[in-house]
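Many introductory courses stop at the sequence. We go one step further.
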Amino acid sequence: MAAAPREVPELDAAAVERWRAGGGELVDLFAQARDAHGGVAGVRIGERPTVVVTGAEAVRQVLAVRPDRYVKRSHRARLLVGDGVLSATGEAWQRQRRMLQAQFTGRGMRRYEQRIAAAARTTAARWDAYARAGEVFDLGEEMRRFALDTIWRSLTGHALDAATERELASLPEVVAAMPSLPADSATAREAVAAELARIDAVAHRAIAAARDGGAGPDGPGLLHVLVEAGHTRPEYTDRLIRDELVTLMLAGHETTATTLTWLHLLLDRHPEERERALAAGPEGSPERQQAASALVHETLRFYPSAWILPRCAAEDDVLDGYAVAAGTDVVVCPYLTHRDPELWEKPEEFDPTRFTTPGRRPAHPGSYFPFGVGPRACLGLQFALRESVALLELLLPAHAPRFRSVPERAAYGLTVRPDGPTPAVLAG
């Protein structure tokens, strides 16, 4: 006879009050719950407890095995991305995901190889100029510029121009503002109305150009696929095309830029890992590419693209032996799973060889999921990895950034990002 499900253990109220009084980050509270009660633990901040999921098997159950029981309620970025695939649910999400999925398979990715390489070369040339001039620049802004140029080329077929880049600076501004926006959606939208208007203007111009056949030097981009869909699929209205375009711009550059910024900050603390990657093999070799990929993966282990994945229990369930009632808020936290000493050897050490040495990383699929796992895993996984490696192949041999100052902490918002500027100069 199967054992009766247990009640989810909760972090005691005194610990929550101490955390609240100390002004700690939410991740600190979640970590206390994990340390006290394991991979399925309750935290009561308001009237009802939130179930924090960090155990590998529980992660797999929530995201991969029973995604129909643990559903998205409303994505935090909805005021920005509308009904795009990031926030869509149910049948609408299924249709939109099928529409986009083919664009990010192995065959689909080949369409973007030249565009990724061109964006990487543009960034490398800009860094060469910085090095010659001894110019101080913000590394985080440079990574955002590269990632935005890459996704813009892939969407439109055109390189990112200066005017569009200035207007799309509103994207990270809205993302950074999200944690402090009012809960009421209308009030929140009003607070960032000017930024949203600039983003909408860019999107509408790009859509109009795609409709007029405005393919770039490398041919039509992913935006043209969306516009063509509007000719035969009535759900692809102007509004949905806009929402998908903004979703792809946001998801296609914000997380990659943040990952590459963290990667350089980590290499600043661990210069031996840069040398290890360069010594792995000659330029362009599979060994060098594998070493660069390992740098990206270990950075994503430390700072996953989304540090929490919120869900809501749509029905009663038993999660890894614990009873979870319908309506319960469930938060999967890859940030903590990736740092779990029961899963990872010396998890606080930056060690990219975990991803090049057989047997060094946990085999369980719920132990490493920087892009999610299961049917809602990020579509752009291969795209993000390919563009990151393409850039590192050019930058690592040529430049070692030296930071004038580094952020003292991380900011936990839509992504986990460095909380401050990253001024740097370049050394060969």
